[in-house]
Amino acid sequence: MGLTITLVLLIVVALAFDFMNGLHDAANSIATIVSTRVLKPQYAVVWAAAFNFGAFFIFGVHVADTIGKGLVDPNIVDDAMIFGALGGAIAWNAITWWGGIPSSSSHALIGGMVGAGVAKAGFSSIIWGGLSKTIYAIVLSPFVGFSLALLLVLLVSWAFVRSSPAFADKFSRKSQLVSAALYSLGHGSNDAQKTAGLIAVLLYSHGVYSEFTVPTWVILSCYTVMGIGTLLGGWRIVHTMGSKITRLTPMQGSCAETAGAITLFGATYMGIPVSTTHTITAAIVGVGAAKRVSAVRWNVATGIVYAWVITMPAAAVIAGLCYWLGKAVF
């Protein structure tokens, strides 16, 4: 079919979701470094956005491949289904952003894909191997982030046990610039690729490409738009992530970001679309718990977990409804 007005409009909507992803998940990249006062908010978002975009030059397209052809049979994809998937993801993102809830844009999009696919062709349209890998990661990535952060903060505390508090604080503030940059690279590498995978399967369904492929211009566009979204920030969620869960020191912030970055790098390499939100939140809880269990506001953390649990099914239901709306329009 080639390029059509409908295809262009859907690509624009997909990029709008990518922009919202950057806006919604900006807190993932900057909450810790803002709350520890290592960088002012306006400088932190520039720092995060630059490294979000910088991921384009480092990582491949493994996650995009999983989203584009590893969740739903790409042969059943059409305009109404993509509209439904994006509608479900964007609607859920808007709801959670308004409430200041750090839910997962990634799992909203995955839920949207699954919900729209089931609405069109039933459960037989789902590629269960790819979906199960993603669902396992919902549990595993926060656990890895939590464990790594807990281990790192204990190791760093031991390493500086004989150092003066002033020296340790000065070192931690400098190291947090590096850890925030690494985390932003991980955020960009995993999240921008999800939208790229969706656009790629849309192009394939329109016959623009004879086989599923992720063009360079698609990846570049997604990284750019996500960087712009991050640049504009997500201040409601920054407050929840940076101070409501636990009060962070520069050393704790550096450990949390490093743990999150390691987790995201590994997931991206394996092509697993994990949640950057889940990962960094668990890491923040980990560094707080390393100090003492009571340092974590468990009521806030529990509320965030509830949002994680309902994100995929909620986005899927909304996506199913949006699919039927899209079917009437397209």
UniProtKB/TrEMBL annotation:
GO biological process: phosphate ion transmembrane transport
One Pfam match: PHO4
Localization: Membrane
Keywords of the record: Membrane, Transmembrane, Transmembrane helix, Transport
Cited InterPro entries: Phos_transporter
Membrane-spanning segments: 44-64, 76-95, 107-128, 135-161, 217-238, 259-285, 305-326
Membrane topology: Multi-pass membrane protein
Gene Ontology terms: cellular component: membrane
MF annotations from Gene Ontology: phosphate transmembrane transporter activity
Designated name of the protein: Inorganic phosphate transporter
Organism encoding this protein: Aestuariivirga litoralis
Classification lineage: Bacteria, Pseudomonadati, Pseudomonadota, Alphaproteobacteria, Hyphomicrobiales
